[in-house]
Each structure stands twice: as structure tokens, then as C-alpha cells.
Amino acid sequence: QHSLSPTHLLYLPSRELRGLPFEQLACVKGMFGHNVTRDFSLHLFVHRMTMPLLQSNHEEAITAFQTAMRSSTVETLTMPETQVERNKVTLVSDPYNEDTLNTDGETLIDTHKRIVQSENLSSPLHFTGDTYTPSRDDFNRILMESSGLVYTGFGRVLSAFGGSKVAGNLHLGHMKMVALLVMASNDAAVRRQTKSDSTKTLAELKTDQAHATALLLSFRGVRSVLSVISPVPTLLIQKAADSLVTSMAKNKEPVFAARKSLLQHEVPVVERYQRIGQTEAAQLPPDMAEAPQGDDSGSEGEKTALLFDAYSASSLVCYGLPWVRVA
């Protein structure tokens, strides 16, 4: 339970069922909306919640966890709120400088620089790939010295952290939140990912999957992992980073509320196919050009639609504590 979300649904899917988009079921959305999170086991979820009790000087407790201890008894455990220090939130965007689309809109790096300046995020560890190609030591330093991380880029991410052998040996109990806005794709990213994959064993390739990466980070102590688990267009990754960081840093929204605001956001249909700041006309798919989905809005009856369609929405999954927020 949470003061901002009295009813929150926790999914604990098995390995065989983890690929199903439970969050998009009509019955679930009707009862819980987007107040849904996942975890890998109930034991791990309770461990995430009780970790703050091992630390001191926490803020006023506003969260509670109810567990059926006996058939006729419910015990309530009151927990401190989990907050990320603002100056320890690190943004890493397009670390391999692969966003080279020829457009008049913003690139991922442009969006990164605008967000850092507008939201006054002062971490010295912010990184973009237009300066130099980062090493594994650079990524490990970011993981070890940050309390929150928003990583935006192409392809999969675990190999950038040094793979499971390196990342699996890091103690990340200080990390409150990691947002992995990845799985975008273009030619440069595919070539890099293919070259990297050619040197990995089958076991390493399995560990490099989005679900396994979230599991590894959770086992190392991260409280909340927000991850894109399926390939989505680069412009959605860009807009997700812009919306999530603004919601959490400016509006002080917890992870679940920032995700909810993003998934409920409606835009004119044409904006679903435009980069931030793009003025060039976007080429709509034939079905959208002929009969765009959505409701009429505005005095001119402009068609609108959800920024994230059902597939894209199912790709953005929250693991662990959904109420982590920026202090």
C-alpha cells in the first residue's frame, strides 16, 4: 500500500509466463489501471521493502505492507519512504553515440542535455556518448556512486556494465532506482550488438536479456527497476526519458505515478511519429493516415491517440518497489 496508491497489484509470474502482458489485460486495467508492478518472488519483494529498516535517519513512514501471517490474521508492517537523493540521480544517454538520424528534431543526447539543465540535476556523473566511448570502469563507477540511474540508449545494456560476471559482483544496496530505457534500434546499434554477441556464450546471451538484467540488478540490491523489455521506436525511448525524468525530478512523482502519467498521455496522432522538436512532417502509416485511432479533441477536431500503444505500453515494466521517488 502507498498513500498515493491505496490499491496496487503485484504480479509474481513464473519464467514460463513472464513474457505475457498481464498489465494490459482489460480486467486488470479496469480494477487497478496502471498501478501494477512485478517481482521475481514474494521473498525478494519483502526484502526490498525491509532493507530501509537496516538503515537509520529515514523520513516519515508512509508505506505499509500487509501479509497474511495466519488464516485469520493480517499483520501490517510500516516502512520508511524510499527516496533517491536528487544530486545522486545520474543520467546516461546514448553512450555509444548511435543516434544519428538525419532529422531536425532532438537526438537522445540533445534531450539529455536539455533535461539536465532544466531540472537542475547536478550529479557529476552524467554521461553522453558525444565526448568519448565509455569503458566498463566508467559504468561501474556510475553504478557504485549513484543512488538512481536513468540509462537511455540502443540495444541491450548488461554488456556495457561488464556482463554478469562483473555486474554480478557489485554491491548495489545503495541504488534505489534504475530505469533502463533501452531496446531502441538502428543500423549502428545492430552492428555493435551483433559484434558483441558473437563473443558471448549461450549462457551470457541469456543473461543479457532484459528480464535477466532486471533480475541481476534486483539480486544485487536495487529497490526498483523500470525496464523496457521489448524493442520500441527510438522516439518513444526519447519521450519516455523526457516524461519520466520530468515527472520524478520536477513533480516529485514516484516511479509508478511517472509511468502511469506516461502511459495515459494522449497526443495528436502525428506526434506519435515525430521526434521532440521535429518540425518536418511525419510520414504516417497507411492505416493511421486513413483512419487514425483516438478521440476528437480541440476546436478543429484534431485526432489524438495514446503516445504508447498497447504493445509499447506492455514493453515498459516496473520490477520491485513502485513508490521510489526523487527527494
From TrEMBL:
<protein>
    <submittedName>
        <fullName>Uncharacterized protein</fullName>
    </submittedName>
</protein>
<dbReference type="InterPro" id="IPR039586">
    <property type="entry name" value="CFAP46"/>
</dbReference>
<dbReference type="GO" id="GO:0035082">
    <property type="term" value="P:axoneme assembly"/>
</dbReference>
<feature type="region of interest" description="Disordered">
    <location>
        <begin position="281"/>
        <end position="301"/>
    </location>
</feature>
<dbReference type="GO" id="GO:0060294">
    <property type="term" value="P:cilium movement involved in cell motility"/>
</dbReference>
